[in-house]
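Section 5: illustrative case.
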């Protein structure tokens, strides 16, 4: 089977169709500039859960890709045009967005930078979400151009400990992302990893806001649970996609 045929099959279903079993396709988008640190590890664990549940998986590192956010050209909204529902910008993100259109599950991962996901993940979201969402309402409901529920999630890693992030109102800000994804794709979750360990060798950096020892203990005691939660998330989302 050539790639073209594979793609068109992914676009339709992941159940048994005409006696062909179609695999669930899951995409994991890393919005951290670091490829081997907290966010990437959480995504890899989610990917493992998805693979164990039978999904074909792809991990994309956004910082490898030369792209910008939405340019507000509205080509994705022009009536009866071939770009309706599709981002028309021709740059290096285009093939990634094309694969995202074929995906059954999409998990975004980002560090928290100044209370928000990174600029690259926000730029990706603009390009990925805006063409599928519409300005159309029917029977009081927002119409989106997806033809089925695509389970989505955002994994967020942060320096803040859990109590402090709750105290300063991070959930209200950060969970807006999942609300938008839920509105457009029909399902979304948010998963956090708190109080992350940031450097290999703290002695090399100006740093006295936290205790390195406390951070190390927290990581040793909690990060494996965070990774396990990510693995279960991958498992859960793929199962949800397969049940449709
Ligand atoms: C530019 C920058 C801004 C940050 N801002 C915040 C912040 O507002 N709140 C927070 O809890 N952590 C903040 N952090 C810490 C990161 O969110 C945290 O270390 C994260 O786990 C890093 O992810 P990574 O290991 O995948 O790169 C910031 C880090 C950087 C580099």
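Designed sequence:
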């Amino acid at each position: 089977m050539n790639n073209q045929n594979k793609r068109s099959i992914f676009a339709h279903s992941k159940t048994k169709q005409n006696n062909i079993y179609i695999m669930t396709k899951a995409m994991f988008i890393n919005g951290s500039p670091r490829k081997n640190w907290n966010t990437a590890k959480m995504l890899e664990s989610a990917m493992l859960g998805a693979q164990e549940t039978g999904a074909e998986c792809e991990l994309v590192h956004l910082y490898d890709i030369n792209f910008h956010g939405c340019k507000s050209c509205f080509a994705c909204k022009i009536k009866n045009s071939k770009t309706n529902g599709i981002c028309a910008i021709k740059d290096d993100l285009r093939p990634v967005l094309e694969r995202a259109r074929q995906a059954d599950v999409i998990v975004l991962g980002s560090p928290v930078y100044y209370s928000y996901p990174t600029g690259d993940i926000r730029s990706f979201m603009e390009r990925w979400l805006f063409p599928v969402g519409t300005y159309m309402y029917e029977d009081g409901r927002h119409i989106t151009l997806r033809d089925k529920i695509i389970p989505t999630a955002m994994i967020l890693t942060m320096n803040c400990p859990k109590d402090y992030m709750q105290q300063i109102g991070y959930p209200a800000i950060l969970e807006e992302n999942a609300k938008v994804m839920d509105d457009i794709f029909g399902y979304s979750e948010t998963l956090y990893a708190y109080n992350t360990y940031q450097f290999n060798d703290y002695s090399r950096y100006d740093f006295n806001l936290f205790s390195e020892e406390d951070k190390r203990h927290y990581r040793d005691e909690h990060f494996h649970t965070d990774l396990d939660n990510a693995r279960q998330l991958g498992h859960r989302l793929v199962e949800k996609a397969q049940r449709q």
